[in-house]
Amino acid sequence: MKSQGIKPVSSKERMIELDIIRGFALFGVLLVNIVMFNTTLFSKVATTAPLSDPLQLQTFSDKISALFIQIFAEGKFYTIFSFLFGLGFYVFMERVEMKELPPNKLFRRRLLFLFLFGILHFSLVWYGDILHVYGFVGLFLMLFRKRSLKTIKIWIVILLVLSTLIFSGFTFLNEWFTASLDGESLIAQEKALNDLMEKSIEVYKNGNFLQVVNYRLTQELPFVAMNLVFLIPKILGMFLIGLYAGKKGVFKDVTGNLDLIKKTWRAGGIIGGGATILYVLLQLNQTTINPFMYASAVTALKEMATVLLSLFYITSLLLLLRKEKYNSILHPLRYMGQLALTNYLVQCILCSLIFYGYGLGLLNEAGVATGVLITFVIYGGQLVFSKKWLEKFRYGPFEWIWRRLTYGSSL
User: Fold this and answer.
1) Which of 55, 99, 174, 333 is deepest in the core (most CB within 10 A)?
2) Torsion of CA 190, 196, 197, 202, to 10 degrees
3) Does residue 12 carry a pLDDT above 80?
4) Can you say whether the dihedral through the CA atoms of 329, 330, 333, 338 is positive or negative?
């Protein structure tokens, strides 16, 4: 088989809707990630991070900003990217197979280099990297490529229910374990968590680059590896929804699938919105529940809302793009989406330089509301840059490297 036949997707073959959804999702990812960069992993473990309890923040603007991000953004946008990854898998495999090339081999190469990108990103930039997760979980996605739509639907339900049970069950067990501790043991546990949190803040706020990297690899890596196990069902479930949409031809024929899109939009909005209202009421103590079940109930409702609202956002964009007025407004997001990998990595690098000690060292100093303003500045700058870049080049820098490594030929 001749290597010159191996070529990436041309700009004419791109689905504009997918790029616009990617561009939209990048804004939500940045909105959440800036809050995460402005704290530490062990602050999150100790439940003192801003999004753990928005109402404990001091200023009204920070409370409103954090609550808004928690309700409308946290968890929703990496879930959208998971859906897009599954859909992208279907598109990639179909196009490669049409060219009579080895789809499994090429996709495994694609996953390998995405995983390596993720490992480098985790090691050198941020503990919250998602690329290595996609690179790993994507291997399981290959098992479903030839499965029927009915089988895929069954596995979607199984995986997403399992994910909700895992997260809410773990929360319940943690609450049960904490409640079973005597006073002295509870104090010791809280002290251990606070010590971890304070040490992490000290390193990230005042440490140099090598000290931060060393801390991440020695202290944070075990927690991140453990979290990967918990993420597999949810990520794979969203991958399969994307694969299902690809097999149904939803993005190839939006008009022909309009009934399915509208049903998903209504279900996502009504049920996802309802679950959101319930967990917000629980957080605000506006509804009563057994205190022992409180945390696990909030977690279960959040997990349900995250998946359904992400589908609501996706279908909302598809419906809006059918209207000329909104299509012209949303169209510029395609430039962000075409450079999704580059823009994601640049966002994280910039955030690390803003908040960590080897940069401006603003960790825990900038409020959540300030983070929202920074989000608009970075995203706006990237939007302009992406458009200018694509006027001269077909691919973003990291997209070009990934494609070159995947296809092994000149682009």
Assistant:
1) 333
2) 140
3) no
4) negative
